[in-house]
Write a structure and sequence with these properties.
Elements (H helix, E strand, L loop, with lengths): L10 H6 L4 H27 L3 H17 L6 H12 L5 H25 L11
């Protein structure tokens, strides 16, 4: 049986939190609670064809995604910003790029919950 490759890496969080697992837990909880709303906002910007807003939203969450060690979509964020600011909008490419970002983030969040189930026994931050 092949082991699934983790899409996230908590090394940066451990460094930021000086190896404090409570800090890591809070950051993972915050990320998994806030990211669905951010992805919904990005989707809404696509539906409304608000390309500059989409680029801004993507730029805003890029650092959160990076701090979770989700490296697989770093280039997708750059591409999304480029596409949204281009003189000629390629809507289909924007949608494909967003879908890639959304899929990887959702998979990473599921992996976080599977890898650290003890962190997610509560729905709220304390």
């Amino acid at each position: 049986m092949q082991e699934k490759i983790l899409l996230f890496n908590i090394d940066a969080l451990l460094k930021m939190g000086r190896n404090d697992m409570l800090f890591v837990q809070k950051m993972l909880l915050l990320f998994t609670q806030m990211m669905p709303k951010s992805l919904d906002e990005m989707h809404q910007a696509i539906l409304e064809k608000e390309w500059l807003r989409l680029a801004s939203l993507g730029h805003k969450i890029k650092s959160s995604v990076s701090s979770m060690g989700i490296a697989a979509i770093a280039d997708d964020f750059k591409r999304l910003e480029f596409l949204c600011k281009a003189a000629e909008i390629e809507e289909q490419e924007i949608v494909l790029t967003f879908n890639s970002i959304k899929t990887i983030i959702e998979q990473a969040m599921e992996q976080m919950k599977h890898q650290y189930p003890q962190f997610f026994l509560t729905d709220t931050l304390t």
